[in-house]
Design goal:
Blueprint lengths: L1 H8 L6 H23 L32 E2 L2 H6 L18 E5 L4 E2 L4 E3 L2 E5 L10 E3 L4 E8 L6 E8 L5 E12 L6 E2 L4 E5 L10 E6 L3 E2 L5 E2 L5 E2 L1 H8 L11 H6 L2
Antiparallel strand pairs: 1-13, 2-5, 3-4, 4-14, 5-12, 6-11, 7-8, 7-10, 8-9, 9-11, 9-12, 12-15
The chain binds zinc ion (ZN).
The site of zinc ion has 7 residues, from loops.
Length: 259
Amino acid sequence: MSTFIMENTTPSSPSAVPALIVTTVVALGITGAAIWQAGGGGTGQIPRFGKQSADSPLVMPEKGAPDLAFRPLSPWQTLTVPTAVRLDPPAGTENGAFTHNAQPFWAKNEKRGANHTGDDLHGIGGNNTNLGDPVFAIGDGLVVFAGASTAGWGNVVIIAHKDAEGKPLQSVYGHLDKVEVKTDALVARGTKLGTIGTADGQYPAHLHLELRAGDVVDAGSGYAKKQGDLLNPAETIGKRRKALNEAISASPLAKALVP
Ligand SMILES: [Zn+2]
């Protein structure tokens, strides 16, 4: 039956078909690499647009709209992002004990005139009691940003995941003291990303954790009027904590293409 298909669907000789597939794969790879380079190569500073930055300046973007400073993931990064079936808390023991969510997701902040875009995880003793404590990846993922962001954020790590249904998910870890991972690193759930900080003394030590059902790299503004693709971190992690343990796994195609 296989010869029937070959004879009736293509004028190519059987030996030409693998060559055509190889040529197509190479051409797609070159196109993807070109797009990636044009997009900044997946490293470096997040572009800054508008005036809003994190918790610091008491201004909102013009007209109160969310600040859409973003960079799409490169084709290569998209291909490499692992699935995070299970999620765990990012700080204060593996069960999240010893953290206090001082400003929960979507709490209205009167000073900023908008809602908080994540959870603020402080030490249960308040003030700087969790300064320097470890921050862990909430799930298997690919580091798509690691380093200094805008002034209000201090150091930031952003991890791209696919959720259990294969949809894009990102976790953002703000106000870090030290950053101990690099952009483009694959990290397993529980990997230490850095330590809790104060964004250079701007706040009492805490971790700003933000979750988004999106795939653009964006430190965001810390406060927003529209929820958009923002997710409730505590609720989302709570739902995924019961999932089975998994091993970190990039896409099979990404693995096949790695030299
Ligand atoms: Zn915050």
